[in-house]
Write a structure and sequence with these properties.
Layout: E1 6-10, E2 14-19, E3 25-30, E4 59-63, E5 71-74, E6 83-84, E7 91-96, H1 98-101, E8 107-116, E9 119-128, E10 134-143, H2 154-160, E11 162-167, E12 174-179, E13 186-192, E14 199-203, E15 229-235, H3 237-241, E16 256-258, E17 263-273, H4 279-285, E18 290-294, E19 298-300, E20 305-310, E21 315-321, E22 326-330, E23 339-345, E24 349-357, E25 362-370, H5 373-385, E26 389-390, E27 402-403, E28 406-407, E29 412-413, H6 420-423, H7 427-443, H8 447-461, H9 507-510, H10 519-535, H11 545-562, H12 575-586, H13 590-608, H14 625-634, H15 638-651, H16 669-673, E30 682-683, H17 686-701, H18 706-721, E31 733-734, E32 741-742, H19 749-759, E33 762-767, E34 771-775, E35 777-782, E36 785-790, E37 797-800, E38 805-811, E39 814-820, E40 825-830, E41 839-845, E42 856-858, E43 864-865, E44 868-872, E45 878-884
Parallel strand pairs: 19-25, 33-37
Antiparallel strand pairs: 1-2, 2-3, 4-5, 4-10, 6-7, 7-8, 8-9, 9-17, 10-15, 10-16, 11-12, 12-13, 13-17, 14-15, 18-20, 20-23, 21-24, 22-23, 24-25, 26-27, 28-29, 30-31, 31-32, 33-34, 35-36, 36-39, 37-38, 38-41, 39-40, 40-45, 41-44, 42-45, 43-44
Helix pairs in contact: 5-7, 7-10, 7-19, 10-11, 10-12, 11-12, 12-13, 14-15, 14-17, 17-18, 17-19, 18-19
Length: 885
């Protein structure tokens, strides 16, 4: 393939290299980017054989008889030199692909590399050269970018590689390719002509019985260091009839029929955006449709959402499928050239909003309607403490009582799995359910549920999963469940499971205390019960608050002692350690606080010296960034915090789709925590929730950066999409088009719900382009006043961006807030007193310094405890006025 050399093309935005014999892409280097290449050009030699895909290839599934069999054709499958064609005008290189598509193909396919109006593009002119109609059942344009992390250090990967995510939005669709370090430029692939982004197909590496890679597959080995390539599908009907027939597609699947002699042209353009944040500006500048959903594309039924559209053409019609699932009403406002629509969710589940513009362009946006957040979370708590509540006093592994893993497909508790941690209440996939229950109680405490949880802590966690004495005291086991048939009665273990892999730990392996990632779950459980015992008298009764805070602290320090190796990396849920430290200080426990702070400072110092301190037990990961950001920010290493934030933005997109918006990159944890075990882009895996924590923290420091709010809030809300109508929480959503459904296992969803519980809040901002916006509540602006009704899951956090004002309640609920931007007056309305909440406890922070805004404090003199204002609650509502000092 490479023997004939290369062809170089000079385009306005890129230095392009083609392989001469195939005229496929060998390098796509944006000018001014110091030689950075979006393609895996450095792997070209090893990827130069049959079957390896490159930019410029095409896949087709065809038939000439409407009832006949489909036949597959791929320009990559069996390479032969293509036939170069003469070029003129805007065509830089062109070739007839007949030699590499096969002699029996009934179509003539001519590929051209073009520059049109200063934009570099790829076109396929497809002509029916036969005497009968040809149906194109699928048409795929492989998108081959350098996401191969294999055999690279973390630093090399961040400098060399990219991730890419799709907006599967028909004619308005696009693909964004972003560098791992989060820096510009970013690549945006858009349709040229009529090339809808109908579906997104993973290019796998399946092999046949002869071990030869099958057509439409790529030999590059998929692994935890290589997610795989994908292709943009302009037609997908043949797949939907066959491989994908059991899934509901993002868009209506279509086929294309060419009459004899008829020609259709398909293609894409490659646009450059200076930064990830400017992708939408780049789209708008190139007359592409742009959509912005508020609070995103997951719509609670009690929220008034907004959809802002920007496109030179007017909207002709908007339809919703299923009909009536979402109501759509246009407003009279057109802020900043945007068309504003109000959306209300009516029917639970997925819904497709289709916008047809006057020029015929079709844009689709996938929404998900959920119950009001408070109801969804209440359902979740109930499911965990009923359906998932495992009670078996004779359980040989000491797991009773507990919220154990669950299989929604069989509607049974998972008491055995050959990946023993899933049934063993540890690791993310085993601890997920009881961790999620703790985090649910943090913001929506329920006395009956807490009674059960205290039983779990006293009978399973303390002295079972966690050592209560001996040299390993406070250490956390890898699993309570294990595989050791010589210790159990014959036939105890399920015969339908494979117990022969490394995942089936024996008793000794399960008792290992050296996996640091198990410790944050336990620390979080104690910290939540400390918070509840401290702020809600009578709610937690088995131990005093001191016991829980002490156990949270000791668990943290045991992690440093018994699991030191992995503490060099950031931990998922690591923000809980920051909160434990702050609470130690608030309680005046200075010795413990100093010891813990010194230990964490040592970790931060290590990260300060690393270019990209985001390692883990995996070669690349997207979960440690959360804690790395937290501690580097805490200790004043702002440059490293910014490196961390940029990296998050490199793998966490904002895209007009409920599935991809705020969905941080993750693609291997179905293997370790799912029922359908495969490498696959996971949507709203726990990475979405935990990565949203630093994004929203940074937004509170920079309240004019709406991009941070949109991505962070998308990840926070994404975790609620995992909860079904009865309250079951799934590990993540399968993005591959043969499934497009939530995994049946609860798995590691608890870490994701941790992110939601840690972040859920109502955010209010006045955007220069879009006007007044509320994320997590409903907003009314009348005259000089703005009134907001918080409707987020917990209703105990509120951010007023115009003032940089962050209000949180350790106890109590916000009912509403009214403020006047001009006078800076703020009036809080709190819910009345409840059995375990006689007082509210208000914290006032101003992380952003806004010009002209002073320091806020309650107008009425209130007692302070541990840095919070104590507000006696009345039987009805209680009002608190804040004024500037």
């Amino acid at each position: 393939m490479l023997a004939d050399g290369y062809v170089t093309l000079d385009t306005p935005g890129f230095d392009v290299t083609l392989v001469k014999s195939s005229e496929t892409m060998a390098a796509l280097k944006p000018k001014g980017a110091n030689g950075f290449d979006f393609t895996p050009g450095d792997r070209l030699v090893e990827r130069s054989q049959d079957g390896y895909y490159h930019l410029g290839d095409i896949d087709l599934r065809l038939r000439t008889d409407a009832t006949g069999q489909w036949k597959d054709y791929s320009s990559a499958y069996a390479r032969h030199p293509v036939t170069p064609l003469a070029t003129s005008g805007n065509v830089l290189a062109a070739a007839d692909l007949a030699p590499t598509l096969g002699a029996d193909i009934p179509l003539r396919v001519v590929r051209s590399w073009t520059v049109t109006n200063g934009k570099f593009g790829l076109q396929f002119s497809i002509t029916n050269k036969s005497s009968q109609p040809v149906e194109i059942g699928s048409l795929g344009i492989p998108m081959v970018f350098n996401n191969i992390i294999s055999e690279r250090t973390l630093a090399q990967a961040h400098e060399t590689c990219s991730f890419y995510d799709p907006y599967i939005g028909e004619d308005a669709g696009y693909l964004q390719v972003t560098r791992l370090n989060g820096h510009g430029p970013a690549l945006v692939v858009t349709p040229e002509g009529k090339t809808p982004f109908e579906a997104y197909r993973p290019i796998l590496n399946h092999r046949g019985p002869d071990h030869k890679v099958e057509i439409f597959n790529d030999p590059t080995q998929r692994s935890m260091t290589f997610e795989g390539f994908y292709e943009w599908m302009a037609a997908s009907g043949a797949y939907q009839q066959n491989e994908w027939k059991n899934a509901k597609p993002w868009n209506v699947a279509t086929t294309i029929t060419l009459k004899p002699g008829e020609t259709r042209v398909f293609g894409v353009q490659f646009l450059l955006s200076d930064s990830i944040r400017d992708i939408e500006k780049t789209l708008a500048a190139n007359r592409r449709p742009v959509a912005v959903g508020v609070p995103g594309y997951i719509l609670p039924e009690d929220i008034e959402g907004h959809l802002f559209l920007k496109y030179p053409e007017k909207v002709r019609s908007i339809t919703v499928d299923p009909a009536g699932a979402i109501s759509v009403a246009k407003t009279t406002a057109s802020p900043g050239g945007w068309q504003d629509y109000v959306l209300r969710g009516k029917t639970w589940g997925q819904a497709r909003v289709s916008i047809r513009y006057e020029d015929g362009l079709l844009q689709t946006i996938s929404y998900r309607v959920i119950k009001p957040e408070v109801e969804a979370v209440a359902d979740f708590g109930n499911f965990l403490t009923t359906k998932q509540w495992f009670v078996d006093p004779k359980d040989p592994f000491g797991r009773s009582p507990s919220a154990i893993s669950y299989d929604r497909q069989t509607n049974q508790q998972v008491t055995q799995d050959s990946r023993v941690w899933i049934a063993g209440l540890s690791d993310e996939a085993g601890a997920g359910s009881w961790l999620a229950l703790a985090m649910k109680e943090l913001g929506e405490p329920n006395k009956a549920e807490i009674v059960k949880y205290e039983q779990f802590v006293d009978h399973v966690l303390w002295g079972g999963l966690q050592m209560k004495d001996g040299p390993g005291m406070y250490g956390v086991r890898k699993s309570l469940f294990y595989y050791q048939p010589d210790k159990l009665p014959p036939g105890y273990y399920r015969s339908d499971l494979n117990w022969k892999s490394w995942t089936s730990w024996n008793e000794k392996q399960s008792e290992d205390l050296g996996r640091s990632f198990n410790y944050p779950h336990v620390a979080a459980a104690y910290w939540v019960l400390y918070r509840l015992a401290r702020n809600h008298p009578g709610l937690v009764t088995n131990h005093p608050w001191q016991w829980y805070l002490d156990h949270a602290y000791e668990t943290t320090m045991a992690m440093m002692k018994d699991a030191p190796y992995y503490t060099r990396f950031g931990q998922m849920e690591g923000d809980v350690f920051v909160q434990i430290l702050l609470d130690l200080k608030r309680e005046g426990l200075t010795d413990d606080a100093s010891t813990m702070e010194a230990a964490m400072h040592g970790r931060a110092d290590r990260w300060k010296g690393e270019a990209y301190p985001f390692g883990s037990e995996m070669p690349w990961d997207s979960t440690g960034q959360e804690e790395v950001y937290a501690w580097t920010k805490y200790f004043g290493y702002q440059d490293k915090a910014e490196v961390t934030l940029d990296a998050i933005l490199g793998y966490d997109p904002t895209i007009p789709s409920w599935g991809y918006n705020g969905s941080a990159r993750r693609y291997w944890d179905f293997i370790y925590g799912g029922k359908v075990e495969r490498l696959e882009r996971q949507l709203h895996h726990y990475g979405s929730g935990v990565n949203a924590i630093p994004l929203l923290s940074e937004y509170r420091d920079h309240p004019t950066d709406l991009y941070l709010l949109r991505v962070g809030y998308g990840g926070t809300m994404g975790e609620l999409s995992n909860i079904d109508q009865q309250g079951f929480g799934s590990a993540a959503f399968h993005s591959f088009p043969d499934m497009l459904a939530f995994d049946p296992y609860s798995g590691d969803y608890g870490s994701g719900f941790f992110g939601h519980a840690f972040n859920t809040a109502t955010y209010v901002t006045d955007d220069p382009a879009l006007g007044w916006l509320a994320f997590g509540g409903n907003l009314k602006a009348r005259g000089a006043a703005v009134t907001v009704t918080p409707l987020d899951s917990f209703r105990n956090r509120l951010y007023l961006a115009p003032f940089g004002l962050w209000l949180t309640l350790d106890a109590g609920k916000f009912k509403s807030v009214e403020f006047e931007p001009a006078t800076h007056s703020v009036k809080l309305v709190l819910d009345g007193s409840a059995e375990f909440t006689p007082d509210a406890r208000l914290r006032i922070e101003q992380p952003a310094k806004v010009a002209g805004v002073g320091v806020f404090a309650p107008a009425e003199a209130l007692r302070e405890e541990r840095g919070a204002y104590v507000i006696p609650l009345k039987h009805g509502v209680t009002e608190v006025v804040l004024k500037q000092k």
